[in-house]
Amino acid sequence: MKCKLLVCMMLSCMLFSSAFSQTKKITGTVSDEKGTTLPGATVLAKGTTIAVKTDINGKFSIEVPEKTKVLLITFIGMQPEEVGIGKGVTVTVTLKSVAALLQDVVVIGYGTTRRANVSSAISSVKGKDLKDLPVAGIDQAIQGKVAGVTVDNNGGQPGGGVSIKVRGITTINGNDPLIVIDGVPFYENTRQSSGYAGLGGSNGQTGNSVMATLNPNDIESVDILKDASAQAIYGSRAANGVILITTKKGKSGDGKINYDVYYGQSQIYKKLDLMNLQQFAIYQNQVATTPTPEFADPSKLGKGTDWQDAMFQNGQVQNHQLSFSGGSDKTVYYLSMNYFNQVGTLIGSDFTRYSTRFNLDHQIKSWMKVGVSSNANKAIQHVALSDAAPGAIWDMAILNPLVPVKNLDGSWGGGANNFIPGVQSENIDNPVANTNLRKSRVNTMSFFGNVYAEIKFLKNFSLRNEVSYYYGPYDNVAYQLSGNVGPRQLNSQYSDYRSTYGQWTLRNYLNYNWYKGKHGVSATAGHEAQYNYSQSISGKKINLANNLLDLNAGSSDQTTWELGGGKGDGALESYFARGSYTYDNRYSITATFRSDRSSNFGLNNPVGYFPGVSAAWTVTNEKFAQPYKTIVSNLKLRFGYGAVGNFSIPYRAGVGFWPGPVGFGTSSYLNGILNPDLTWEKVITTNGGVDATFLNGRIDLSVDVYNKSTASMIFIGTGPRLLGVGDNWDDLKGPVINTGKMTNKGVDISITSNNIRTKDFTWKTTLIFSKYKNVLDKLAGAGSAIYGKVFYDQYLLTKTIPGAPIGSFFGYVTDGLFRTQKDLTNSLPQFGYPVDVDHTWLGDVRFKDLNGDGKITEADQTSIGSPLPKFTYGLTNTVSYKNFDLSVFVQGSYGAKIYNFLRWRLEKMDNTYSNQLTSVLDRYTATNTEATLPRFKTGQVNNVAVSDRYIEDGSYLRIKNIAVGYRIPANILKRAKIANARLYISVQNLATFTKYKGMDPEIGAYNNDIRLMNVDQGHYPNPRSFTAGVNIEL
Amino acid sequence: MKNKYLYVALIAATVAIASCKKSFTDKPALDGTTIDNYYNTADEVRSLTSTLYGLPWSGFENRAMDCIGDELAGNEFTGSGNADDYPFQSFTISSNSVRLADAWKMFYKIGGWTSEYMNALTIKKSKGGNPTFIDPAIAECHFFRGVVYFYVARIWGDAPIVTEPGRIILSGDFNIPRYFKADVFRYALEELKLAEAGLPETDPQKGRLTKYAAKGMMAKLYLYTKDYANAKAKALEVINSGKYMLVNDYAGMFNNSKNNNNAECLFSIQHQLAGNPWGTGNQKQPDRGPGNLQTTEASMWELYIPTVDILSAYESGDTRRKGSVMEHGWSFPSWKPTNASNAAYNTFMAGGYKYDTIQATNAGGQKNETRSNIAKYVVGPGSGFGSETVLGMNTGLNTPLLRYADVLLIYAEAILGTAANTSDAEALKYFNMVRSRAGLLPKTTLTADDILHERRVEFAFEGDYWFDLQRQGFAKAKAIILAQNRGTTQYPKYITITEDMLTLPIPAAEVAQDPELAKPAVKYY
Q: For the residues A503-513, what does the mean pLDDT come to?
């Protein structure tokens, strides 16, 4: 041994030709967290210039002076590590990736900070925690992952709408949070597409998701600003919360090629229990005055058409993501390409997206860094008319099972009242034929990005200049092909809507960072100017030559043409500043201020001011806490207070012009009534929070309680129709007013427990719990309320009066049925009707006289349920064992009510021609007086009144996602020069536990309108899907 | 550190760029203008009141007008499975009725539009707008506001009156009471008086309102308030003006848009043949036209068909029957509907459209419950099939709401007054003008029943007969309705009404939003 050492020493003397009197040789291995050895890592003897690189096997050998105590090991993309060498001669070094370090960095808007310094309420999700979810957009991916953020899929439409609500319902206006992707703001996440109104059919489908048109696979992290002290830096746009999305960047070192692919199939998991032909025939024979002769002997009939089978199909999803990343010490790049395709379970609905992203960062001078983050996307969507009545699912459910999908001659069945001579049917179209002949296609493109230059100067200062841009061409065509549906002939029609939206933002801000001893100061101040412009044009023609989908192919008869357009622009100029001070890692305080001048407010109040302040105390860094550190390793108390706003106004008062002739021809109209005192909507949040880590990092707990109060809400003042003004397209708009007050009080809890952490086996559990209580405290005046009406005959389903949660259902309270003559004799007069067989009779619904005036009138309506959940939760378990990993994600909602408007239609029993649920077989008749449902009666009005009869419990618990993955061992991959490969299979919505009678309890909100939450108008159900995927890294 | 100055310069430059001009955020709307820089010419002002003649009426005109005006009255029939319309046939109308809600919404909407239009025009005048064309526009607004409240009083009786919607909304107090029916009538009358005073004698644009439209409407309103002297006087002013006459082609007024704004029209809803904006076209055709007339261009779903009762109301030889009703043997040779997939149909219709209740329905026959269809407002199967252009549900036909024939019958009725009968020469003269146009023999004496009957067939399916029945008083209305077969020949149905059914319930959603509506009516004047 001695000898060996001597030889080494001699060798080293020779090698270095140095006069070191005494050196020692250290050997070792450098590897990453996964145990993969790292070739090319730098090993430096600290305090010297002596350095070596590790060899191909990650091994190194270094001669260092005897006095050297520490080795510094560095590797690109890894956190530098210092290793004490003491007496040892062999060391094993494990480097942690920088990503692990970055977990501690929180994006806060116009900057980042360390998690330890955060004093407001900010939740973060990493892109890698959202893996294995075959979803179109990031909005869907964060469902159940963030405390305080409630996400509902508004339907199963591929690329369909998603309701994201940060901490309850902030305002009666749009509740979409501000989403900022690498500095580019997205104000709305809901976009409506053309229905068929222009085609002689009905309108109405719920809006679609903007985020679905962007690729979620490029996302590195998502940071959500939840309280006003954090949001204030975004001022007038932050009322609904701010979601900051940071995309992936390259890392210095060897280039990486990643290919991720998955493929899946989906089905609806539940069908409605509708009557088949035999059941329907028996039912119609009993209730119709003129029964269909063909129904004389129901036993001879088959099952008829199952419209659900005809309308639903197996859905498919596939996703391909190819990315290249890497860089040198001065330049990093990330380039990705994505293809996503989803075919919906409802026929005629699909979604395809192509996207590419390029991110580049370059250190051009020692004092200057420049970069670009750019994105180009194209999404094509075929929208099924669902989630609104009438619509595909609504029609599907009520269409008579006698109507064939196709006639024997191959033509589409149905299509007219008397499609078979003598057979009456509901006069609705064959939905399969409709879907084949009519389409609404949306083509969304977006090009956006951010270019920056960052200059460091003096000491501690840096100046950042950014230009972000967005350009979005959009077109939406709705068309009908010529054809026959039974005897009914359709002519071809084509309407084409095209628009572009452009936006630029110029942003300059100065950062200052200063540390001395226990004191730390950081400050940001800047200016931002933003301008946006939109324009649209639309045209329509009929009778297309050869069904060609082009305007030129249409009829030359100008009376049949339509032409319209629109334009608008807006500007926002802002100043903002933020300052933080930390002392001794114990105390930190942050103050923020922003002022916004908006083009939306030109009159008395053009500028809004938004302050925020927050403070934190890290208790565990106090001396007195040291003894308890083994139990509580970290404990931080936070407090924040701030104000943010909402600057979007629904319209600008003035004179407008109709797109076509009205009255005598060209006509103008008054677009609303001016309110010169219109001002900002204000949201004030108080937040208190605790972050704690127990048992040496085994359990992380974060709890926030908040009180969020919204005042001066901006909305179009409307009331009863008798006022003569309203908020529909053809109304003279009510004045835009500031009124009312709404509060959300709630608690967000997230707990992460590292149950098991061994070399081969880890098990982590994360629980997310969100609870809030929403109350509309005040409106403009006594008697005013907020009303929610569905498209179907403008039925009023929700009415929120002060004191109730927003979107509360409104109607009568039922009190069973009139089952006996005695019941009838004792009945209170209902709606002024006499007691007779045409009005109130045996088998009718009895309503409660709530005001005790001895009669049932409109005054007996009341709040009959809230669509808001009492709480929502998400529970994620991730387990890894050697090369296997498993994640089980359970998500749920408790206590929300659903207005099952489809069941209202399907148990209506006032029409002999339309199909109903089999539940109507147990309706009241002379021989079935103990029935659950009321009697059948045409032209009957009592039984179908909006009442608690249709309110259902919308609580559900869903096994949202189970994924099992297997990482192919490195020794196998090496031969194929593959760095990493993982295979996985996953299942979404495996099981849903609910009492809800409709197809799917996750309803969301129609067009994200908080006045129509949890109203099932023929909801496009979220399907169950099975997916398999591979991640490969070269 | 010589770069220091460069940095300072950079910062200075940045700050300089950073401050935008104040005009940066000063953005007027790009898709419209303001009353400050618009409404400077007569055409501009008239483009505003032009809207009142068309689009906003569609909510009432399309269906509610059928349900209330003719179905309640026993003129129109609909299938019992039709939950929205059937209650008007069976008198089981609920406060949740969508038809009632539509009618209510439309009348009050025009009330709101006219109120705010008048407000804006008054402001424009105060800013130097030219009263020579603004004042007549304000008078047009008064006319429309008067007319809608005239409907409101007749349909609902006691009802709210709203004149300042913007102010009410800014105040936030929506507790608006119902006012006595008599006061609503009076309010409507006051509005019509203002219209009469401000409207011109004549207007170069056919179909625009003149003084005489206001006078005619006042005459009608006076009849409802039983002010026979004034009804007679106003009707006579219209007659003596010499500006109106009965047109010979009764059917043509309702099946061809080239007859829009003919010599008989005092006031019509003005339609444009267009599908956009929705409701600017006339949408009555699809609800009335027979299924066997449907083509790729024209929808027909015969929601409303004549009752057997009105079919029996026509006197033998009344030429209005063919203009109002399609029955077996009715034809329209220039309409040439075809169906791509039905050769038998095409053969049957080869010589032009035939209404035939014997032919098989899959070969061009037409067999509905009363074996008849309404002919009024059916302009045909579309330009590709030999008629004028039709756009799906939309036609370009106007809907007259006040015809000269009405004024003549009002005049006769005003002379009769409360008398049992009259042989007044003037009354007979004008009454018989209406009859002789229909090819009927003149009458020599007149009773209230004669006039009521004449009104029924003259204005059949024009949305008026219910109001005529209603003003007969409960006992008589009840007896008339009880005598009507509201079912089919095979399944007759007779209805007994109660007095409260003479007025219709206020929509439930309205009462929910304004609980004052559930309380007893109060005085307006």
A: 93
